[in-house]
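Quarterly update from the structural biology core.
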Amino acid sequence: MYVAAGLFATVSGELSVSANPNPTHSPEDQTLRARVKLIGSLLGDVLGSQNQGKVLDDVEHLRLGFISLHQQDDPDLRASLKAHIESLSPQRLTDVIRAFTIYFTLIRLVEEGHQYAIRDDQARHLEPLWSGSFNETLKQFQEAQSMDRSQLQALLDRLGYSPVFTAHPTEARRRTIQEAVRRIFLDNQLLDQKGLSEFQQNEIIDRLRAQIQILWNTDEVRTRRPTVQAEVKYGLYYYRTSIFEAVPRLYRNLERAIKRNYGERDGHLSVRVPGFIRFGSWIGGDRDGNPFVTAKVTEEAARRQHREIIRCYLERVDELSRILTHSDRLITPSEEFTRSMQRDRLIAHRAYRDDPDEFITEPYRRKLRLMQYRLQCNLRLVEERLYGYHGSGHGDAYENADEFLEDLRVIRRSLRSHGDGNIAGGSLRDLIRLTETFGFYLAALDIRQESTVHERAVAEIMQQVVPGTDYAAMEEGERIRLLSRHLGSNTMPAFSESPLSEETREVLNVFYLMADLRSEISDEMFGNYVISMAHTASDVLAVLYLGSLAGLAGTDEQGRPFCDISVSPLFETIEDLKHVPDVLETLFTTPIYRAFLQTRNNLQEVMLGYSDSAKDGGIVSSSWQLYNAQKHIVSIGQRYGIEMRLFHGRGGTISRGGGPTHQAIIGQPWGTVQGKIRFTEQGEVLSGKYGNFETAIYEMTQGVSGLMKASARKFDEAPEEPAHFDSLMSRFAELSQKHFKHLTEEMDGFVQFFYQATTVSEIGLMNIGSRPSHRSKKDISKKSVRAIPWVFGWAQSRYMLTGWYGIGQALDDLFKEDPDNLGRMRTIYKESTYVKNIFNNCQSVLANANLRIAADYAALCDDPAIAKEFHDTISRAFALCEKHVLAVCELDYCLQNNEAEALSIKRREPYVEPINAIQISLLRKFREDLAKDPEGQAEDSPWRAPLLRSINALAAGRRHTG
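Predicted structure, tokenized:
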């Protein structure tokens, strides 16, 4: 039998940009390398046992060949490897791609587990913990800021941390694969246990081999494009898999760190930790550009969320009933507890109909059984409504989460009354934390729609309400006066819906649904109504007007304003970001809008889009406009006495505002993070961040500690920025945008090069998300292509252009304008976290790029002259970027200050290159078949399936999608 002793073992090799030629391997890295080798060997065993080992032979031939090329380039060997790829059948290529994809998945899992083991070991030994840990954060507060208990309490009391999940899944992994990977993760972690015997180790290894074999025999690719309902289910998976476990543990870790640093008083923490974590979701609510998200779909998404959290509570109440087995012969519950049982005696009569004396001497079990019965009533109600039956009333079900939460707190107070406070601090406290966090709605569902849709709806309705009105032709001031007048009226306008267009009726149906589900499930069921492509103040008032038609906003009979909907204008493009101050000034000087804000705790949320602004003007220009926009937003809010909350529309990748959450939050402008933050967690990062609760705790801790640090800064006490900061960064952004736009908008042939030298067209064929890859099928321009496939396409071809282009040329211009600018930029890099993030993120993108491989993608272009022109232009810019970024950071090679990431890239690169070579071959063959099928998508081409799998494989190997 074949023994794959060396298969997928850790290798050395050069990075795609200048790298450390002799990296040092710490003991921790040596441990990781050993585990990588073990897992690779197990995968080799599985491949060797399948198909007479033919797939393994192909994999080994390519693996060893490309490793050799990384050690020393050999044109003859490279040509031989390409010829071998060309000789393989579609099925054999599919199997080879799958083998590498599984390897990438397993190695990511091993690295994730390794990092968790290191953090766990640090925590056990109480060593100085990692940057972003709660202990490190609190020590910093005490030592650097002299923050006392009362100040820390004030900080915690104003925190609001809200990750918002979105359905942009550029990874196509099915939930079945996620579950299989989770099992492998758990078994891999078992090997880290101390004192395992040889027999126990072999038993775990055998189990791992079997799990990898199951993974190999499970199709990882969806056969159909997912529906929005499937995306909703996919998002819910992470709650039950990790988040329900991670949230209570995070609070416990914070309380432990407070006890360690600030101590206790009278046996209690000297600083109370309030519940400040809330989750949000766009999955099922984001209808911008997605025709499949209807009011009916949103209704189902909300009810599925409601059902998921009720199921969670049922499981945990059942668990508690097996723990709180106190006998009333041995303890005496509090009077409050006894009264609560008397108050619910009629419900108890129905709950205990089959066995009236069940748990009669065990008061807490009896109470919990009653609570379980009521939750089951809630569950039955939501399931009836999911299947279209609306006949039942609430009956014995909980009216709302507050009733359920109060029952839990009554039990906690009763336990404390007879000396069992420590027991109350266990599973019961965790369930209380979950209820505070998720209520009965799980995640606040945001609604998103594009501004022109609202404009058309208002125009149609106004033609009936005020005959002769042409809303579409009105100037901005006229629109504001018209909308203000109607919002200030306490009379509901009369109009008929039957003449309205289907689009406008659907818009109204969403508002009717919001009103209904707020009453049925929770006032917090819906988060914010996000207006994409917001340009003016009337865009915001238009949403409120439409909401008023469903009773969500308006003026009552006493002339008092009310508003049950929060509106977030989303500013996405470079030009829109410049107009943020004007829009907010107009809103805050509009009396009816100010009156509505007063009813919403005087809180205004503004969403900032990272993706489209970066696609529009390049990474630096986008970042700088966002940086300044935040300062303007908070400044305007302070001037009008309005609390501002920023909603960051971050993507999963650096090119779309991604990167480490902790650094991103503390890198925001001084004082603009005022205790509360919302940010999108894109679909492509969910598995990496929330697939395992061990990692979910770490990721959430990094975000919360970053929020604590950033919120400790006062906007009006901002330190003086480094000399030349504003002028230098403004010029840097201006020059960067100029070069980026020159390439992507002014050079002839760019669109042709983009579509032929990347996989952007093929990404649109994948069954990865319900939303189309383009805003218009007939428009293939840069403007039409969505930000995700825009970034994804450049990443697949290894140009990684969206994360660095424009930076090198701009720096070159700056340094030529004034040689002293290099020293100034170095100073700014050292003193500004914001600027440090820009350059460190750029290093990461450069290290992941590979211009030699990109040249082979360029060769796919029909016109060799266009291919050469653009590849040469990009290559020159790349060399400039690498040179100047390293000069500013004063480094010898990229990621010199992040060896862990550098080694991870180095470890994977020789295994990714074979997939790039395979993909290039498949693209050429598939496009030949596509040319023969101009009206279709070459669905019968034998090369189509392996090509789409290669896109998944590269995303897994590079850990970079859209």
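The first strand starts at residue 160 and ends at 165.
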